[in-house]
Structure formats: C-alpha cells, structure tokens
Amino acid sequence: MAIRNILKDEDPTLRKKSREIEKIDQRIITLLDDMIDTMYEADGVGLAAPQVGVLKRMIVIDVGEGIIELINPVIVESAGEQIDVEGCLSIPGITGEVKRPARVVVRGLNRSGKTIEIIGEELLARALCHEIDHLDGILFTDKVTK
Fold first, then answer.
1. Annotated active-site positions, please?
2. Across-strand partners of 117?
C-alpha cells in the first residue's frame, strides 16, 4: 500500500468524467487500499479516484463509522436538504457552504464485486455526494452558496 499524490484544483484531471469499472482486479484492489491510506494520511473523510489521478468511478469514505468503499457508485434516492461548510483535499485552505440532500441512498459494488447499498444521512450523505461529484468532474466550489 502506498500514499498517492493528491491532485490540486488547477489540475485538469479533476474536471474530467471518470469511467465505469468493468472488472475488479488486483489493480483496483490496490488502488482502493492506496486511496484509503492516502485519505487517512491527509486527514480527510473521503477521497475519489480522480483526486489521485485515476479516472475510474470509485470512492472511499470514513466519517468516523468505519471505511466505506464504493465502486461505480450511483445515488438512487435522495431526500431533504442540508446546508453546511465543506472543504476538499484537492482545494486546501478553502471552505464554503454547500446545499446537499440530508439523506441519500447510494448503490455500488464492494471490492468483491457484490452490489451494496449505503444509506447516508447528514455528514455521510454530504460526503457521498461530494465524492460522487468528483467522479463527474464537479468540485464543491462549483456549488458553493456562501
């Protein structure tokens, strides 16, 4: 496992749409492990593959309840509304208020290729939305209201 370099805002890779993962092989597993190590090393709560320069649809999150790994995540349901301050490992030192759903249901694959659903509320809902946005080249600064 390795600590990867986190791309910063000016890197054009962060604005590109990521590709779906068709096969979960050892390279994907290694990338998941590296992303987890990188996220913890940077003291973050989430990391998307594009942030480490890989345009694949995969994210890792830990809001204090244990690690969540999602491959090809899709928001299948959202409800409510919350506005709170966000930051991003790719945009250090910048924060802003962003409106997000208060609750989301996200479907994706785990590292074994099994379909899983994650129900996120409050901070977890925010983190899921934030990281999935990265997969479509969207940064939180695009959505800042204040």
1. 131
2. 107
